[in-house]
């Protein structure tokens, strides 16, 4: 085991060196706060406590800092590994700034929704432990958001071969695993499970409706619908319920109605881009269509090209010079025949005969 540690450390450092400044900053902050937790209760000062998040305390900064706090080594491994996986798989597609926005949106939403859920639980049970004994911190919220993003970008990737598990099932499996741990008698897993669930929900809402990209905003493709997070048996019912809820939110103006957009590009070509389509595939098809159109126009231009006047004159000269010369008798006979055909009354023939007679006399 000890001989593999230097190799793992080398791979970790090489992977971290290739990351952006955003990923390095988040990982360094997590490590620094973990070391600080040995001397200070960082989960109390920087983690989300439902009783302190809402009035009259308003510890709103904890919505930003709770995702960077860890108190256990395994939590640091999960947090740093999640951030590095996002930097390796999502940052090349989105960019560093978009990854930072996604990190902030998911964590703030997960912390706020988790705190609200515990507040409602206290309102139903009047148990103060749900307000002041609960600490929400760590990477579960961002882990749920990253799993949703990986489902969107590379959902068909196979994670396990036996049994065959694809990446698109990872969010549901993560929540199921946490639920099993909670039912097995680990009550401290309840807060991470709630944060992971709300991270999945926040990540899906942001990627589905609000993320800006070159094709517009959001992703309305069928493979990223809310029903796709459930087994195929439940997808029709979940899809119907989700559609009704979305329509109600649109009527209440709490959600924006999504429409498919057709973007017309340059006048030389027409580009039709729909949300959810692969931009590289669309660009490849556009190039093929443009190439076929150019070849067709080239053939039409070759067929309708104007002939050269010099070539026609040269051809006429060749025809005149190459034509065979007729004998003199044939020429006279042709001339006489032409004159007779032009004077059907016979006047020309009488003149000729008169001249002949006068010459004989």
TrEMBL record:
Gene Ontology CC terms, in alphabetical order: Golgi apparatus; membrane
Biological process annotations from GO: retrograde vesicle-mediated transport, Golgi to endoplasmic reticulum
Pfam family for this entry, one: DUF1751
Localization in the cell: Membrane
Transmembrane segments annotated in the record for this chain: 12-38, 58-87, 99-120, 132-153, 165-183, 189-207
SMART domains the record matches: DUF1751 (SM01160)
Polar residues compositional bias, start-end: 338-352
Compositional bias per record (Acidic residues), positions renumbered to this chain: 309-319
Membrane topology: Multi-pass membrane protein
Family matches, as InterPro entries: Rhomboid-like_sf (IPR035952), TMEM115/Pdh1/Rbl19 (IPR013861)
Principal subcellular localisation of the protein: membrane
Residues covered by region (Disordered): 301-361
PANTHER family linked: PLACENTAL PROTEIN 6, TRANSMEMBRANE PROTEIN 115
Listed name of the protein: Transmembrane protein 115
């Amino acid at each position: 085991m000890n001989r593999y540690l230097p190799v793992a450390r080398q791979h970790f450092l090489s992977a971290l060196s290739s990351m952006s400044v955003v990923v390095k900053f988040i990982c360094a902050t997590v490590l620094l706060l973990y070391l600080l937790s040995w001397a200070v209760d960082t989960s109390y000062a920087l983690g989300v406590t439902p009783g302190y998040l809402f009035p009259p305390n308003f510890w709103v900064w904890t919505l930003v800092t709770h995702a960077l706090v860890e108190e256990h080594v395994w939590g640091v491994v999960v947090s740093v590994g999640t951030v590095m996986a996002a930097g390796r798989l999502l940052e090349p597609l989105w960019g560093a700034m978009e990854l930072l926005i996604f990190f902030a949106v998911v964590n703030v939403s997960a912390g706020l929704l988790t705190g609200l859920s515990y507040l409602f639980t206290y309102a139903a049970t009047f148990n103060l432990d749900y307000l002041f004994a609960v600490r929400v911190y760590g990477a579960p919220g961002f882990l749920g958001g990253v799993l949703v993003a990986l489902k969107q970008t590379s959902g068909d990737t196979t994670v396990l071969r036996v049994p065959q598990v694809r990446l698109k099932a990872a969010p549901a499996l993560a929540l199921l695993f946490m639920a099993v741990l909670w039912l097995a008698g680990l009550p401290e897993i309840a807060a991470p499970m709630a944060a992971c669930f709300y991270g999945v929900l926040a990540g899906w809402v942001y990627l589905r409706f609000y993320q800006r990209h070159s094709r517009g905003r959001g992703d309305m493709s069928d493979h990223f619908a809310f029903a796709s997070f459930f087994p195929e048996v439940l997808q029709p019912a979940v899809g119907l319920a989700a559609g009704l809820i979305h329509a109600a939110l649109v009527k209440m103006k709490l959600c924006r109605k999504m429409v498919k957009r057709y973007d017309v590009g340059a006048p030389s070509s027409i580009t039709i881009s729909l949300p959810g389509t692969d931009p590289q595939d669309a660009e490849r098809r556009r190039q093929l269509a443009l190439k076929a159109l150019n070849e067709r126009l080239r053939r039409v231009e070759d067929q309708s090209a104007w002939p050269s006047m010099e070539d026609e004159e040269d051809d006429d000269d060749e025809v005149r010079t190459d034509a065979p010369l007729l004998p003199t008798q044939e020429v006279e006979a042709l001339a006489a025949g032409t004159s007779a055909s032009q004077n059907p009354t016979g006047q020309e023939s009488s003149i000729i005969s008169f001249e002949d007679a006068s010459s004989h006399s």
